[in-house]
C-alpha cells in the first residue's frame, strides 16, 4: 500500500463547533491510495492541518508530488490491544519502483 500525491492543490475549510462555538480551520490535500493487488486507486484526502488558528492553517504547506508510505508512528494500539490509525505521518518513497501497484 502506498499514497500518491498528484498535485499540490489544497482545500481549506472552517467550521464552528456545535458544543463550544470554537472556530476550527482545516487544510486537506487530495491523494490516491494504491492497495496491493488492485488495478485502480481509491481517492482519499490527506489532512494537513486542524487548528483553531487560521494563520497556522494558511501557512501549512502541501505535500510534494510523489509517492509516500505511512510512518510507523501513524499506527498505535488502544487499551484493548486493537490496532488503530492515528495522525497520518507520511514518508516520501525516494525510489518510485518501491511503490508497487
CATH fold node name? OB fold (Dihydrolipoamide Acetyltransferase, E2P)
Q: How many domains in all?
A: 1
End-to-end distance = 8 Å
Show unreliable segments.
none
Q: What kind of sheet is the major sheet? A: 6 strands, antiparallel
The ordered H/E elements are EEEEHEEEE
Q: Topology of this structure?
A:
Blueprint: E1 2-5, E2 11-16, E3 23-34, E4 42-51, H1 54-58, E5 66-70, E6 75-77, E7 83-85, E8 90-92
Antiparallel strand pairs: 1-3, 1-5, 2-3, 3-4, 5-8, 6-7
Structure description:
The structure is a single chain. The chain has one helix spanning 54-58; strands spanning 2-5, 11-16, 23-34, 42-51, 66-70, 75-77, 83-85, 90-92. β6 and β7 (83-85) form a beta hairpin. The longest helix has 5 residues, at 54-58. The protein contains one helix and eight strands; from the N terminus they run ββββαββββ. With 101 residues, it is mainly beta. The chain has a single domain (2-98), classed as Beta Barrel (OB fold (Dihydrolipoamide Acetyltransferase, E2P)), CATH 2.40.50.140.
